[in-house]
Structures are given as C-alpha cells and as structure tokens.
Write a structure and sequence with these properties.
The chain has 167 residues and is α/β, with parallel strands linked by helices. It has eight helices and six strands. The termini are far apart.
Amino acid sequence: MEAAICEVCLKNDMLCEGCSKKLEEGEISQKAVDLSRYLYSLTKEHSYLKDIEVNEIYVGEEVIVIVAPEEDVGKVVGKGGEIVKKLASEVDRAIRVVEMSEEVKQFSKNLLPDVKVYGVNKVFSPKEDYYKVVVDSDDTSRIMLKDEEFTEVVKKVTGESAKLSFK
C-alpha cells in the first residue's frame, strides 16, 4: 500500500524522520496518518488493499476526502462500500473517495459528483490567478466541503487555486 507516510510508518506507532517532517510542516495531518494506518490494518482481512495507492487524504470538518488513482477508487470503497463504512465509523465522519486528476476541471467534477458544475473557468486577476468553479446554488447541501476546504484540497492535489461560485 502506498500512502502519504512510508510503509515502515504505516506498520509502527512512531513516525520516521521523513514522515515526522511532513507532519510538522503540515504536508500531512495527524488524522491522515491515523486513517492511513487504519486503512493499512484492514489489509489483513482485505488483501486487495495491499496494492492500492492513496495520493492524498484531506480532513475536512464534515468529510474526509481520500484521493486515489482511478484503478484504486473501487478498492478503497470496497465491496458494497464496506471499506468506506469501516473508515467512516473509525473517524466518525463521512468519507468521499475521489479519483485523482491533476486537471482542475476534472478534479473539481470528481470532488463534486452529486453537484451540477456549470463550468470551470480560469480567472486572471491582479492579486492571483485562480479557477472559478461555477456550481448550482441548489446543490450547496451536497457539497459537504466549506468553500475554503474545497480551495485547499484542490490546491493540494492539482497545485492550482480554485474557488467555488454559485449560480
């Protein structure tokens, strides 16, 4: 299993120097470390999890977003959602497994599967350039992420700034 922390750290309670540095610098959160370890512990009873890759774990206030390659999304969800259900009960939050994409437009659509996305447009402004993700205002309850959380997870995954806009 590939995760934000190395395999040695997945197996142990302590973090190596490299993974400790990631934690200290805010590259990963303690919740992401704990969730990665819990997911790794599930490989004992679900051997197919040994081969998965988890690109990113973002911990929001109401939801935890797990970003994985297309071929691993189904494995992380599990048969009938069993893995996601176990993860959700472990952290007492909703879990959303999202397909990895380095393109802002595609990743935004992956991150907001139940939301009507009208468009993703590049905005050039004097302060900063960013992507404006225009979504249906009737779908705000389905987003599960606050505006700043959406911006942060898109930035972490794609390296680009993005902001939600409602129509």
